[in-house]
Specification:
This protein is an alpha+beta fold and 643 residues long. 27% of the residues lie in helices and 18% in strands.
């Protein structure tokens, strides 16, 4: 998924299988800051102002136009396969849940980085998108594009039909204004100020519907860096010091299929599909975004969401957690087939979940000891006993990246014999308590983690490691404290994972420039000259084939160093849904992370509502007869290595 409204395309997704559980406590805490709006919303003067759908500022000044260079070779993509079903029909209301109400509808500035932000950004198209199966460029706001020989300039022709939700046409000036907006100190967003100043040099306007975006330097995958989204200058006008407060609850015009129609603070947000949306007949948008209305209701407890779902107050529910799939799914509405389940395998980038060793700790200075540690981790037993065999072994930290992933690397397995041989060769001996020792040093290390839900997994690892002569001291901290400790490089071993991007990122995590200093993502303190050379070559190369080859070499080097012990991956999504919701065949795309995502221009909006099946289902429920349980397994895009 691209990040939408004001970011270049940079697909990311959090692959932690317990992502919703991770957020519960923090989102609940945040939600306590929100005051619900009781009574008649229309009686609230703030509420009336909040439901504005446009604030038409004075017409912006027309920017200078330049002459389009000759010899531009325009490209488009109208041949890649479509991934929506022609059987889809319009209509219905999708009911979803939020753990907390957002602190603001702004997508930049203070308090804007909430989970709800994606619902807003996913309704804002960029210049181009990425096909979720082929990963080729496809049209969004631009119908055509071209690359300059300088490898840092990309030209775009806008679709002349493109419109903001308030009816204004989308023009090249809106993209130039994006730079002005994102560089402004008034938005109070230093990261965006820096990115749009340092990474993007300028926007060149040739006419109302033709522009170029110029990167600050030649970069690989240029379209991922500069395919920015527009910002409605006619709505914002001249920014001032009051931006943060003035736009907290404004509904900003967008270009996607849906727009916020109304909301009650602390309770719900409603989106409605636009009538005659300008892009509804475009090749890659046709038969998508089918529901008329999407309602997000605040339900401040994950278990309570499950109860809401069973009572038809919510339409879908995520079942990735083994307890929900295997135990809590044994409920009447599922057994009688009123609710159906699906297990959908995807083939997308996997989070680097695992144990990260701090190489600045003396005990991990010897590579043989690091290897022994890896062979002492019985990951397979955790998968089988704690995770009910549902999770898969992560072989290395960059699986699911296509040609950029090395299929030949295999994670070190639990092997007491190899631990014995490695530790003996490194000069260690078993102490009287069975733990390896050398002089006054025992092989006892602290494992820092934050989620109580993960304690059971780590307890199994601790007991198995003790058989291998290694003592794990489990140290659970709250998420903020754990993250701070790890970034300060004060850990022995960190139990954590990282989010993903469309291409592997190595410099932040494994280059010596980020070692031996706090507040960097090189939490292993990897400092290896050969690794540096490989990473530098990867960053500087503009050739896709060469970068993919270098990526595979870097992964081999990471495995050789042995500072990261990969654990689990969840290359699928499991969901329950009331049977009046329909999915295409296959049910999603290679990169789908939520089959009932209503908005994402990359993978969302593939499902539809069947009114007749609802009538049939409700009649069956009233008569207390069922259809039989339905569980659909869709392995169309299952990773080849898992077949």
């Amino acid at each position: 998924m691209k990040n939408g409204a004001v970011m270049p395309i940079n697909p990311k997704s959090t692959k932690d299988p317990d992502f919703k559980a991770i957020l519960i406590f923090f989102l609940i805490a945040l939600s306590l800051l929100i005051t619900a709006c009781d009574g008649d919303p229309s009686a609230d003067p703030d509420r009336r102002a909040e439901t504005e759908t446009a604030k038409v500022a004075a017409s912006p000044a027309r920017r200078p136009r330049q002459t389009l260079p000759e010899g531009i070779v325009w490209q488009t993509n109208d041949t890649d396969p479509v991934f929506a079903s022609p059987e889809a029909v319009r209509g219905g209301t999708l009911h979803e849940a939020l753990l907390s109400f957002p602190l603001t509808f702004r997508t930049v500035g203070p308090d804007s980085n909430s989970s709800f932000r994606s619902a807003i950004l996913d309704n804002q198209l960029g210049l181009v998108g990425i096909h979720p199966n082929t990963e080729k460029i496809i049209p969004e706001l631009a119908s055509h594009w071209a690359f300059d020989d300088d490898r840092r300039t990309m030209y775009f022709k806008l679709d002349k039909r493109a419109r903001w939700s308030d009816g204004h046409p989308v023009t090249a000036d809106d993209f130039a204004y994006t730079l002005d907006f994102m560089r402004s100190e008034h938005i109070v967003a230093p990261w965006y100020n820096d990115y749009y100043s340092r990474e993007i040099e300028r926007v060149i306007i040739y006419d109302d519907h033709t522009l170029a975006v110029v990167a600050a330097r030649p970069v690989p995958d240029l379209h991922l860096r500069i395919a920015i989204a527009p910002t409605p200058e006619h709505f914002y006008g001249q920014l001032g010091d009051d931006f943060v407060m003035a736009y907290n609850w404004k509904i900003v015009p967008n270009t996607g299929a849906y727009q916020i129609s109304d909301f009650e603070k602390g309770r719900r947000v409603r989106f409605k599909r636009k009538a005659n949306w300008w892009a509804e007949d475009r090749r890659y948008f046709k038969h998508r975004f089918n529901v008329d209305t999407v309602v997000f209701t605040v339900v401040r407890d994950f278990n309570l969401m499950w109860e809401y779902f069973k009572k038809r107050r919510l339409d879908t529910f995520a079942l990735n957690l083994p307890a929900y799939w295997h135990v809590k799914s044994k409920t009447d509405v599922i057994e009688k087939g009123y609710v159906e389940r699906i297990w959908f395998f995807n083939d997308t980038q996997q989070s680097a979940q695992g144990l990260w060793l701090n190489l600045d700790r003396e005990i991990f200075a010897d590579r043989r000891v690091r290897y022994a540690f890896a062979h002492a981790m019985n990951i397979e037993k955790v998968i089988d006993q704690v995770l009910r065999g549902d999770f898969y072994r992560l072989e290395h930290g960059f699986m699911g990246y296509g040609d950029y992933s090395n299929p030949d690397i295999r994670a070190r397995r639990f092997d007491l014999g190899k631990v014995e041989a490695l530790m003996t060769d490194a000069g260690w001996q078993r102490g009287t308590d069975g733990i390896w020792a050398r002089g006054d040093q025992r092989f006892a290390v602290e494992v820092t983690y934050s989620l109580e839900e993960h304690t059971a997994r780590l307890v199994v690892l601790r007991e198995e490691a003790r058989k291998a002569g290694i003592e794990l001291e489990l140290r659970r901290l709250d998420a903020t404290a754990a993250y701070k400790k790890v970034l300060e490089k004060k850990h022995d071993v960190a139990w954590m994972g990282w989010s993903t991007s469309l291409r592997p990122q190595y410099w932040e995590h494994f280059h010596s420039a980020n070692a031996h200093k706090p507040q960097t993502n090189n939490i292993t303190n990897t400092d290896d000259p050969q690794m540096d050379r490989l990473i530098d070559a990867y960053r500087n190369s503009l050739d896709a084939g060469q970068r993919a080859a270098l990526s595979r070499q870097i992964q081999e080097k990471i495995h050789e160093i042995g500072a990261f012990v990969p654990t689990f991956m969840v290359p699928y999504v499991r969901q329950a849904y009331w049977r009046w919701w329909c999915l295409p065949d296959p049910a999603g795309t290679r990169h789908t992370g939520d089959l009932f995502d209503p908005f994402s221009s990359a993978t969302g909006g593939l499902f539809w509502y069947d009114a007749e099946r609802r009538t049939e289902t409700e009649a069956a429920m009233k008569g207390d007869h069922g259809f039989g349980p339905v569980t659909r397994i869709d392995d169309t895009y299952k990773m080849p290595s898992l077949r």
